[in-house]
Design a protein that fits this description.
Blueprint (H helix, E strand, L loop, with lengths): L18 E10 L6 H12 L5 E8 L4 E8 L2 H9 L1 H14 E11 L17
Helix pairs in contact: 1-3
Length: 125
């Protein structure tokens, strides 16, 4: 079950490369005390970072969670990585909330998107 049910069901839009992404893949423990509140706080906090472009989330029924954060440049990603409140949440995650996790950081060299146009239905009459 995802903590991101209220999030729009659209991916972060494609941006002009280069930019950076951080892929955070997790398996959580049974101990989730204050996780939702801390997660919401981190989502609010990262939005204040100049160069933050957005975030996508997915959760499998089996418990694998994936969060992808998008950042305009390496400086924005570094600012997020070194934020004191974020660092405290990371420590708590290792101590309580995560059974395991991986973090992958990459520079995006190509980006594109697609959105299906919604067809207008003819008026009944």
């Amino acid at each position: 079950m995802s903590d991101h049910a209220e999030a729009p069901v659209t991916p972060v839009e494609a941006h002009e490369p280069p930019y950076y992404l951080a892929v955070f893949t997790t398996v959580r423990t049974q101990e989730q005390s204050d996780y939702s509140e801390t997660n919401a706080r981190m989502e609010d906090l990262v939005k204040d970072i100049p160069g933050y472009l957005g975030m996508d989330h997915a959760q499998t029924p089996g418990g694998l969670g994936i969060t992808v954060g998008y950042f305009r440049d390496a400086d924005a990603l570094t600012q997020w990585r070194t934020d004191a409140e974020h660092r405290a949440a990371q420590r708590r995650g290792r101590a309580e909330w995560y059974q395991s996790y991986t973090l992958h950081v990459a520079k995006v060299e190509r980006s594109q998107g697609f959105t299906r146009e919604v067809a207008q239905s003819p008026a009944a009459g």
